[in-house]
Amino acid sequence: MLLVHKYGGSSVGTIERIKNIAKKLARLKEEGNDLVVVVSAMGDTTDELIDLAKKISNRPSPRELDALMSTGEQISGALMAMALEDVGVPAVSLTGWQAGIYTDENAGRARIRSVDPSRIKEELKKGKVVVVAGFQGICDQNDITTLGRGGSDTTAVALGIALGVEKTEIFTDVKGVYTADPRIVKNAKKLDVISYEEMLELASQGARVMHNRAVELGWIYNMKIEVKSSFEDEPGTIIQEVSEMEPVSRVRGIAHKKDIAKITLKHVLDKPGIAHRIFKPLGDAGINVDDIIQNASESGYTDISFTIPIDDVDKALELLENVKRELDIREVSCNKKVGKVSIVGVGIQSTPGIAAKMFGLLGEAGINIDMISTSEIKIGCIINEDDVEKAVNVLHDGFGLGEE
Amino acid sequence: MLLVHKYGGSSVGTIERIKNIAKKLARLKEEGNDLVVVVSAMGDTTDELIDLAKKISNRPSPRELDALMSTGEQISGALMAMALEDVGVPAVSLTGWQAGIYTDENAGRARIRSVDPSRIKEELKKGKVVVVAGFQGICDQNDITTLGRGGSDTTAVALGIALGVEKTEIFTDVKGVYTADPRIVKNAKKLDVISYEEMLELASQGARVMHNRAVELGWIYNMKIEVKSSFEDEPGTIIQEVSEMEPVSRVRGIAHKKDIAKITLKHVLDKPGIAHRIFKPLGDAGINVDDIIQNASESGYTDISFTIPIDDVDKALELLENVKRELDIREVSCNKKVGKVSIVGVGIQSTPGIAAKMFGLLGEAGINIDMISTSEIKIGCIINEDDVEKAVNVLHDGFGLGEE
């Protein structure tokens, strides 16, 4: 059987770990499987490379950052191939462009346009384990691009789809997807199965579990994704199309985020087209605006609040300076001390009483709700950053999600 | 004017140095020059990558080593481009394959087959400084190859030729080519001009000054090469076609080597074809055999000695084990404690008295000569490794090469 595995940065963080994975892969190969193995950069390599760049320039160009960062996965890929060869398994490492990962030109956040797996298939036919450098591709200009943080997951799922496997396996440093972040909630429970949609909403665990874009890609192509531990040999959580076997309208998990900031625009003229003029420059700059709240208009003016990733704050405030001048907005303020907690589950928004219960639980715990946002499968509250861990626990207990 | 520069590992060894070079390049750009800049990996990066590989495997495959090592120059190239952009100079970094450096498939020691400079020209036309990752190329299989140690010099000269510049400038941590290694001989003198041939024989300074293959390439295409300091703004040494302006038959410099080993094969059957059977496997393995000495045959048997780079000893001894069995050679021994000292100058071999003077100077200093080898422009002696520095000084003084 053809298997597509992905190993994250901590899974290949040391020489010892790379060797252990190679031994495991050797066994799978011996059992008659073909293997395509996507690797992230070792441990903190990507951060170290970014630090180097920042020492050179405050604003390194995305094109050069991509050329720089893509080396991290090229290194771990070559080392993994060497480790395989060292235990007698024929192997070959391929960079993104060698593996046929074609992307758009959006450096630093490139999206995969197509995958040409012919080189991979050729190497598999020669009996080789194919190790692919994750997180990277090549655009029409023949420039190296990267897919954004966690992009190796996307590489793996894209290859799984292009190669037609039944599921793509993502090996990481957690055992699967939990009802809440197990670092915060002691009795958080591992889920056996979860829908793509729910997984996306549980993105608070994202950085450690799965890259969102990979889940979306899996969803579109209906590619099953199993998230499991690199270090233990047991089943993980399978992300797949929602099915009848799970009761709907139940809270499945508690998501949270801390690395966000709330930006508030005060006294904005309330007329058609204004929101577009505010959010278009942010969108053009690739800033992902999350919850947007617009208060009721008073005398033709309104206040608008929204949240963005904390890393994008400087860029956003710079862009909003122009918007402020052009639209005569009275004040642009920013609060970096906010967090978000959400309950996630298919159908919960339309189920009476669930939202009220959530607000009640938070209120009883003395946690003030700053903003509320909902989607079909999620109810989220923006709260004080310091209250996030308490809120997650209160909701996890309140909705009875813990291990019995 | 179009300039082709190359900066070695120590020249780009720190962030500060990269920034300084960028400032210098910015001035040259401002003066109206176009620039192609070849960079080596920062400082010890290549060695660190090799160390990583060795922790994974005792015998990492050359193909994967190349994939690994080529990242070093990709990193320094991207950083140099960022540094240029940071001082307001449009720049772009290109890997070997992006720069159109096509090589054969001999991983780790690939030779450049052709250069397609179209991407470079396109970027120059856009007004950009083009930074090229040295030391690497791509072969017909679309695999990344490296050109061997010091290959960035070869990249620079090859690009100089392909782009039709008048000379290629190699910036390094020494001021030029000296009459002897200035670390060993205090009053060694910088040469203004030297022939390709003499430069090749002065290869003892090679690791610090120039890669031999680059000199050969320059020679074949008659590309002038200037070796000069990265840190000081003064003329270096120009390597070019020998000309009348220099008197011939004079010792121009003293070369030496320490990183060699002498291998001796005892009691070898002396018949036609034997030497081929001994040296072919070494050649096939890419081992560069230097001086070969065969003693007079006694009763149909002879002894053969030769020197090789010390790094190739293990591989050579392994290969010679087979040869020993097949050819019934009595003993294969190895002496790693040898060195070589040579006098270099066009015409010296055919000038009476020069060789005798050399042997006399060494003898007076109590230095024993183990083997002698000569070429048209060089007389070399294999001696005890510990005597090398003394020998270089004795010969440098004896032939009156020092600064007045």
Topology of this protein?
The structure is a homodimer of 404-residue chains.
Chain A: E1 2-7, H1 15-30, E2 34-39, H2 45-56, H3 62-86, E3 91-94, E4 101-103, E5 112-115, H4 118-125, E6 129-133, E7 136-138, E8 144-146, H5 151-163, E9 167-172, E10 193-195, H6 196-201, H7 212-221, E11 224-229, E12 237-240, E13 253-269, H8 274-284, E14 292-294, E15 301-309, H9 313-327, E16 331-344, H10 354-364, E17 369-375, E18 378-384, H11 388-398
Parallel strand pairs in A: 1-2, 1-9, 2-6, 3-6, 9-11, 10-12
Antiparallel strand pairs in A: 4-5, 7-8, 11-12, 13-15, 13-16, 14-15, 16-18, 17-18
Helix pairs in contact in A: 1-3, 2-3, 5-7, 8-9
Task: Please tell me about this protein's structure.
Two copies of one chain form a homodimer. Chain A folds into two domains: 2-240, 3-Layer(aba) Sandwich (Carbamate kinase); 253-398, VC0802-like, CATH 3.30.2130. Helices cover 34% and strands 27% of the residues of chain A. Chain A has helices at 15-30, 45-56, 62-86, 118-125, 151-163, 196-201, 212-221, 274-284, 313-327, 354-364, 388-398, and strands at residues 2-7, 34-39, 91-94, 101-103, 112-115, 129-133, 136-138, 144-146, 167-172, 193-195, 224-229, 237-240, 253-269, 292-294, 301-309, 331-344, 369-375, 378-384. In chain A, β4 and β5 form a beta hairpin. In chain A, α1 crosses α3. The two termini of chain A are 37 Å apart. The A-B interface holds A 15, 18-19, 49, 52-53, 55-61, 63-65, 67-68, 70-71, 74-75, 77-79, 81-83, 85-86, 91-93, 95, 98, 119, 142-144 and B 15, 18-19, 49, 52-53, 55-61, 63-65, 67-68, 70-71, 74-75, 77-79, 81-83, 85-86, 91-93, 95, 98, 119, 142-144.
